[in-house]
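Homework-ish question, so no full write-ups if that breaks the rules, but can someone show me the predicted structure for this set?
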Amino acid sequence: MRGVMGSKRVLTGTHFMLGNHAVVEGALAAGCNFFAGYPITPANEISEHMARRMPEVGGKFLQGEDELCSIFSVTGAVLAGAKAMTATASAGFNYMLEGIGYAVAAEVPCVIVDVQRCRGENYATQADIMQMRWGASGDHEIIVLAPSSVQELFDYTIKAFNLAEMYRTPVIVMSETTIALMREKLVVPSPEEIEIVNRKKPNVPPEKFIPFKAGPDEIPPLPNFGEGYRILHSLNPHDERGGINWDPDVFESMYERILGKITCHCDDIVQTEDFFLEDAEIVLIVYGSESRPALDAVRYARANGIKAGLLRLITVWPVPEKRILAVAKQASRILAVEMNVGKYTGEIERIAAGLCEVVRVTKNRGLVHTTAELYAAIKGVMS
Amino acid sequence: MLRINPLRRYLREGSVPHSLCPGCGAAQVMNFFLCAADELKLDFDKLVAIGGVGCTARIPVYLNAEALHGIHGRTLPWATGIKLHNPELKVVIFAGDGDAVAIGGNHFIQAARRNLDVTMIVVNNLNFAMTGGQVAPTTLRDLTTTTTPYGNREQPFNLCQLAVSAGATFVSRWSTRKPYQAIKAIKRALQHKGFALVEIVSQCPINFGRRVLGTADPSKNIEWIEERSVTIKEARELSEEEISGRFTLGNFVEKDKPVFEGSSVYNST
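A: Not a homework solution, just the prediction itself:
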C-alpha cells in the first residue's frame, strides 16, 4: 500500500483499511501537508500512519509534547501556508479547546479529529458531542461532521478540509472508537474525482489589503506568512485592519461576522441523509456509528409493515434545523438515538417542541445499540 | 524641531502609543530588538513576531511584521508549526517569564531540546506584571508579592541554566541596565541557527517596584537589578549561597547543532 517517495498522495484503488488509517488517507488526498499529534488511544494509528506517510508526500509530521503543542503548531503551520490537521481522543480533546477557540476567533482553517472514547478506556461513546460544540470559551460556531464507516472517515475528512478552507474556520471530524478501530472496504477515487477547496487568497497587494474586511460572503482572504502582508493574528478583539481594538462596536461586529460565516451559510454546510421518510410516522434521528444499527432496525420495521424512517445527521453542528423541523411536522414520534446519556436529544426536543413527541433512546455503557434494541424501541412507542 | 525616532518605521501604523507602563523594561527591550534588527537589515516581510499573553507579549502587536498574539504560553508551539512548514521565515518570540516558563515551561524545554530554529527574547521582570504583581517561577525567594504576602517560599528558576540543560544552542542573559550588551546578544541570537534564548532581566516599576521594592521609580528599580548583577567570571568565585538571589550576566552557550526539521524525516540517518 505504501508507495515510494513523492508518488503516493492519493492511493486510488480499493482497500481493506483501518478507520484511523482512512482518516490519514483522506487528509492526504485533501492536500494536508502538516500533522501534529500527541499519543492517545484510540487515535494512535492516525499519528503512526501520518509519521510514515507525511515524509512520502513531502509534508511535515510532529509529535508534540502535549495536545496544546499539537493544536497550536497546527494553527502556526496553517498561517504559514499549510493545510494542517491534528487528531486526538476525548481526554486529549479537552486540551485542544484552547487552540480551537483561537482558531475560531483568528479564523484559522484547520481540521481536528476526535476519536471519542469512554473515560480513559477504548469503549464506544458519543459523549463529546456537546464538548465539541460548546467547549471552547467565548461565543463561537463550529462545524462538526459525524462519519459512520471507514469510507466516510475518508470522505468526510476531505469534506472537513474543504469546509475549513471555504469558511476559514476549524472543522471537527467526530470519530468514534467503533469506526476508528474497524477495518472495512475503502474505495479511494482518482485525484481528478476528488473535489478540493483551497482558501481564498488576497487579490490586491499588501498596501491595499485590509486583512479582516470581508465581502458579502463574510469570509476574508488569507495570505501566507512571508508574502508581505504583515498581518497581526490576535485572539483579542480586532478591527478590520487586524489591530487590537476594544471598541464595543468593533467587538460586536467582529463576532457577528465570524459567527455569521457559519450561521448564514448553514444551508450550504449541513448535510443529512434520509431513509424511508416519505410516509414515515416513527422517525429515528441518529448520527455517527449509531446510524448502522438504526438503518437495519428501520429496514426490519418496514419489512414488518411499520412506517418507520431514518434521518441521519452527517453534519451535527451546525444543527440541520430545517430537516429536523420537517421531520417533526410529519412524524408522530421521533426517536432520538444516542450513545451517551442523551445530549443531542435536547436540540431535537427544542426544534420539535409542540409538533411531535421526542423519545430518548440512549445507551451509555460503552457499546453501540444493537439492531434488536432499536427495533424494540420502535415497537415500544407503537404500543 | 520634533525628531521622530528612525526606528519608528518598523512599527505598525496606528499601534502607538503603546500600552506599556511608564518606565517599563519591555518597551526598552523592543527598542533593543529594533536596534539589532536595523543593524542586521532584517527583512520584516519574512519576520514572524510571536507574543503570548502578558506585557512583553504585546511587543509583536506593535511591530510591523507578521504577528501572532493572544494565547498564554503557546508561543513555541506556534513557532514550531511555522518553522516546520516554512523554514525560510525568521521567527522571533517575545515572552515574559510567566509566558516562557510558567504556563509555557514544557514547551520551553522541549523546543530547546529539539533545537528549534527560533529566537526567543524573554523579558524577565520577576513577577506576573499584567495581572497585578503575583509571584512567578522567577521571583526571588522571600520577596513579598500580591500572592506571597508572607514572602515567597519557592526557589526561582534560572532560565538560562534551564535552557542550557535542555539543549539550547545560544543562551545569553543581560539586563535593561546593559543596553549595548543586550543589543549585541540579540543580534547574535538573530544570526544564530538553532534555539537562541536571550533573557533580559528587567524592571517593572508599577507592579514589582511599587509592591515589592516600595518604589515605582524606574531608575531605582534598575539599580536594584544592577546591585544584584554579576558577570559569569565573578559568579565563578561565588559560593552557591552567595550566588542565589543574584543575576549572572553574559553569554553562556553558543554552539552549532542540527536544527529541528520534524519528528519523522524521510531517509534520515
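Now go work out the reasoning yourself. Hint: Residues 240 and 310 of chain A are 44 Å apart (CA to CA).
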